[in-house]
Amino acid sequence: MNRACFVLLMLAWSTAAAAVQVQVSGAVAHSGHTELNDPARLSDAAIAAQPLPQAYMKGAAWLRPGLLVTQQRMKAGVLFDLASLQQRALAGDDQALAASSAALRSWISSLPVTGRESPALLDPRAVEVNAPENHLLAAGDELFYPLRPEGIRVVGAVQQPCTLPLVPLQDARLYVDACALGDAADRDNIYVIEPDGHVFVQGVALWNRSEAQALAPGAVIYVPLRESAARKVDATMNRDIAAFLATQVLPGPGKP
């Protein structure tokens, strides 16, 4: 190999090594794989994607392969705890708790492990000027921009999961009141999962009632299993379930 060929080969190698390949999908003008100069940040991918006007920024998701193993373990732990709770409930002849545990376990087992990092600021211009939120990207990362949902979902220890129309400024507690709870539901707290993946606990009983919390479109309310029973299996079971649900993404182009 002569010197000129060697130099060209090294230049090509250094160019390839200095590129980070990421994916953008959903309601964007330019979907698919894109190569960005290394180091690449969230703003670089977001600007390259050009989200469409109908993209729902509050529900946009940063999906990271590097988080998949951790979230797979989280899911496995939740499923194990629910199976253990079901067995304890059957042994204690608590049919309602056994049925709710089994139903919740079946549903969660069907959910994907996404690798979602949340919350993440993914509005192109907003993240570009917000240095602390403009994180570095790794090869294989994906930005997904969903469409704006029209409702609020109530899941967990309910007779049937509910999708309810959004009522502006309505307290989260009132959505729960509109969805029939199961006998195994905890009556003191609910978990609210915002579209950006942020989770907070809201007291709903008379003794611990929190201030009213209005919800954004696409929020999910997890009605926890009876805390006194769940705590005997794992002190953080309900919190872990809510944390796993927060890794899910909203529907949009390319995502069911």
From TrEMBL:
Signal peptide location: 1-19
The keyword Magnesium appears for this protein: no
Keywords (A to Z) from UniProt: Signal
Domain of life (superkingdom): Bacteria
InterPro entries the UniProt entry points to: Caps_syn_GfcC_N, Caps_synth_GfcC-like_C
Domain Capsule biosynthesis GfcC-like C-terminal residues, every copy: 161-248
Capsule biosynthesis GfcC-like N-terminal domain: residues covered: 17-144
Keyword Signal attached: yes
Database matches in Pfam families: Caps_syn_GfcC_C (PF06251), Caps_syn_GfcC_N (PF20616)
Protein name per the record: Uncharacterized protein
Native organism: Rhodanobacter spathiphylli B39
